[in-house]
Amino acid sequence: MDGQSPPRVLPLLLGLQLTALCPIAAVEIYTSRALEAVNGTDVRLKCTFSSFAPVGDALTVTWNFRPRDGGREQFVFYYHVDPFKPMSGRFKDRVVWDGNPERYDASIILWNLQFDDNGTYTCQVKNPPDVDGLVGSIRLSVVHTVPFSEIYFLAVAIGSASALMIIIVIVVVLLQHFRKKRLAERADKEVAIKSKEEEKLNQENKVSVYLEDTD
User: Fold this and answer.
1) Mean predicted lDDT score pLDDT of the chain
2) What residues form DSSP beta bridges with 124?
3) Which residues contact 42 (CB under 8 A, 6 or more apart)?
4) Tell me, what's the pLDDT at 159?
5) Distance from the Cα of residue 4 to its chain's centroid
6) Fewest CB atoms less than 10 Å from the CB: which of 87, 89, 121, 215?
7) Does the model's pTM come out above 0.85?
8) In what order do the strands lie in the sheet containing 95-97?
9) Which segment of the chain is annotated as a signal peptide (predicted)?
């Protein structure tokens, strides 16, 4: 019984060693999940990734789009060594590459947003031998304006900062003004006292000379 144990254990140990030497290859993709942008503006669809294998010329990035109201999936952008823009469709001349494979960035910029751009954008990265992994997605909502709460808090923050800066400037200017005024008043008092002392001394000298002459 003991003599049969090593042959059974050996394949198990060998399998564990092979698993350690050859880890499962999978690309991890990171996106903002949800994004809101104003109609008519440009938006950056950020997609970053991590890969077990070093990034090389085999890297491919595929962006697709599915409208919110349903419909078939549409091609948005493709990258393999060089960017390939769509030659037709809604995204023609409206999408540019803004990624950097060396920094594990596969982002794109979408120009001149329209309301029918509402939907889900998917980012798929393959870096052989890392070809498996979940597809990253971004739910884009195109709106008329930025929500009031964001505008309100932004305006309050900017207004508060501006008011604080103005108050600080006014306080500094007033302090400098009062300091100069006090220095000027002190100087005037010193000049007046000195003048009185000189006048008094002159009068005393005149009296002394007069008394000497009368004697």
Assistant:
1) 83
2) 62
3) 109, 110, 111, 112, 113
4) 84
5) 64
6) 215
7) no
8) 43-45, 108-110, 95-97
9) 1-26
CA dist 44 and 118 (Å) reads: 14
For 55-104, how does the pLDDT look when each residue is reduced to its tens digit (9 = 90+)?
Answer: 999 999 999 999 998 889 999 999 999 999 999 999 999 999 999 999 99
- pLDDT value of residue 210: 63
Half-sphere exposure (Cβ direction) of 111: Cα atoms closer than 13 Å = 9
State which fold the 24-145 domain adopts: Immunoglobulin-like (2.60.40)
Quick one: which of 31, 195, 186 has its CA closest to 122?
31
Q: Do residues 105 and 116 make contact, with C-beta atoms less than 8 angstroms apart? A: no
119 forms bridges with which residues in the sheet?
67, 140
DSSP, res 139:
E
Which is nearest to 133 in space by CA: 55, 204, 51, 215?
A: 51
Cβ-in-10-Å burial (0-12, 13-18, 19+) of 74 comes to middle
Q: Summarize pLDDT for 125-166 with one digit per residue, the tens.
A: 999 998 888 899 999 999 987 655 556 667 778 888 888 889
